[in-house]
Amino acid sequence: MGDEELVRVDGVDLCVETLGDRADPAVLLIAGAACSMDWWADGFCRRLADAGRFVIRYDHRDTGRSTTDEPGHPSYTEEALTNDPLGLLDALRVRRAHVVGLSSGGGIAQELAVRCPERIASLTVMSTTFYAPGGPELPPMVPGLRAVFDAPPAPPDWSDRSAVIDYLVADWLPYSGPAGATEAELRELAGRVVDRSVTVASSGNHWLLTGGSTPPEHSLGTLTVPALVIHGTADPMFPFPHGEALAAAIPGATLLPLAGVGHEMPPPATWDAVVPAIVEVTSAA
């Protein structure tokens, strides 16, 4: 779709794709844990680029075409995943960017906005929450998803493409809301992920990471950049009050509810609302 390349960051290769005019404001998309850039749909990225944004999406370590470690043996810490976006911006010679983070990518975006305000022009977080103790008491994940966490399916034969796709779809489907991604859409996404990944099984290394830095939640009240919180009303991982509380904690933040959407990338039916909201918040900086 755009220009895809491997960029050297902190001793590893990160696969990055850019779309749009480099003279336009840069928007850096940060996916969730164990997620490659494929989660940022092509059509979504095109809409942002067509609206006058220089769109950057990338594969985290151990996802997609970026450097991968042996499954079960990550050689890096949570801190590395947080620092990678800054190293990526440096490599692309982008001084300041608008960040858009999904799920744990939203946690990374929060930390960058607090820790490096000179590099972050605006903050958009989707399907995320407070990433430290000390925030308000919020509802836990719904029982159905908790059951999946407590009894995850057995891993597939990673050399069997069809079995891996079935496994990924079964893993992802419980996160979708009634207005979210369908099984057919997730199956198409899983195929792209499998076909682009160096080692699909390595993405599970994200769940083994330790060594993150001090989370920034107690400092969110000091943020001065424009902020947008996008949250599905049917999110089973972080129920909707998580989004409401996060928006309330960031001065001047706008909350955009997505009716019937779960813990997932905003589906195409929501893009007519989501893309203009991102364009607006990235225009206010």
Describe the secondary-structure layout.
Layout lengths: L2 E7 L2 E8 L6 E5 L11 H9 L3 E5 L19 H14 L5 E6 L1 H12 L4 E7 L16 H8 L10 H12 L10 H14 L30 E6 L8 H9 L4 E5 L12 H13 L2
Protein name: Pimeloyl-ACP methyl ester carboxylesterase
Pfam family, one: Abhydrolase_1
InterPro entries: AB_hydrolase, AB_hydrolase_1, AB_hydrolase_fold
DSSP strand count? 8
Structural class: alpha/beta
Query: What coarse outline follows from CA principal-axis ratios?
Result: globular
Approximately what portion of the residues adopt beta-strand conformation? 15-25%
Give an overview in words.
InterPro entries: AB_hydrolase, AB_hydrolase_1, AB_hydrolase_fold. This is Pimeloyl-ACP methyl ester carboxylesterase. Residues 25-264 form the AB hydrolase-1 domain. The protein is an alpha/beta fold and 285 residues long. It has one domain (3-283): Alpha/Beta hydrolase fold, catalytic domain (Rossmann fold, 3-Layer(aba) Sandwich), CATH 3.40.50.1820. Helices cover 32% and strands 17% of the residues. The protein contains eight helices and eight strands, in the order βββαβαβαβαααβαβα. The chain has helices spanning 42-50, 78-91, 104-115, 143-150, 161-172, 183-196, 241-249, 271-283, and strands at 3-9, 12-19, 26-30, 54-58, 97-102, 120-126, 227-232, 254-258. It has an eight-stranded mixed sheet with strand order 1-2-4-3-5-6-7-8, with helices on both faces. The chain is globular, with a radius of gyration of 18 Å. The chain starts with a strand and ends with a helix.
